[in-house]
UniProtKB/TrEMBL annotation:
InterPro entries found in the cross-reference section: GlpE_sulfurtransferase, Rhodanese-like_dom, Rhodanese-like_dom_sf
Domain named Rhodanese: residues: 42-124
SUPFAM superfamilies the UniProt entry points to: Rhodanese/Cell cycle control phosphatase (SSF52821)
Source organism of the structure: Mesonia profundi
Name the record gives this protein: Rhodanese-like domain-containing protein
Top-level division of the source organism's lineage: Bacteria
Length: 129
């Protein structure tokens, strides 16, 4: 009976170790609501990125955001950011930011927030209040 306990313990330990090594890397990406984004924006170390066209950014944007347009230079431009600090990304409706998030993950950023519904959802929510 003692041998069976050791075998069971060994199998469970092996499964636990192997499952922890195969967790998906996308756990560093979090979709956030407007309320959550407001809290994230108040953190000192969050890098807030607006990936819309410059004209959209110049027209209006979230306070504290920097404009890094999603274009052919996006990967080069994000290399200037600190990968160890959280990044919060938004675009107009969420489509471009989803693509940017994938690039940020591949580039090695540790914590990424994506504004659900983009800037349009943000302004729509503010107009309801």
């Amino acid at each position: 009976m003692k041998n069976n306990n050791w075998i069971i313990l060994f199998v469970l330990s092996t499964l636990l170790i192997s499952s922890s090594c195969t967790e998906p890397k996308n756990n560093q990406v979090t979709m956030v609501s407007q309320e959550e984004m407001k809290e994230i924006m108040n953190l000192d170390n969050t890098q807030l990125i607006d990936v819309r066209e410059m004209s959209d950014f110049e027209s209006e944007h979230l306070e504290g955001a920097q404009n890094i347009v999603y274009d052919e230079d996006f990967e080069l431009n994000i290399s200037k950011l600190d990968k160890s600090q959280p990044v919060a990304v938004y675009c107009k409706t969420g489509g471009r930011s989803e693509k940017c998030v994938k690039i940020l993950v591949e580039a090695g950023f540790e914590k990424i927030y994506d504004l659900e519904g983009g800037y349009e959802a943000w302004t729509y929510k503010d107009n309801l209040e």
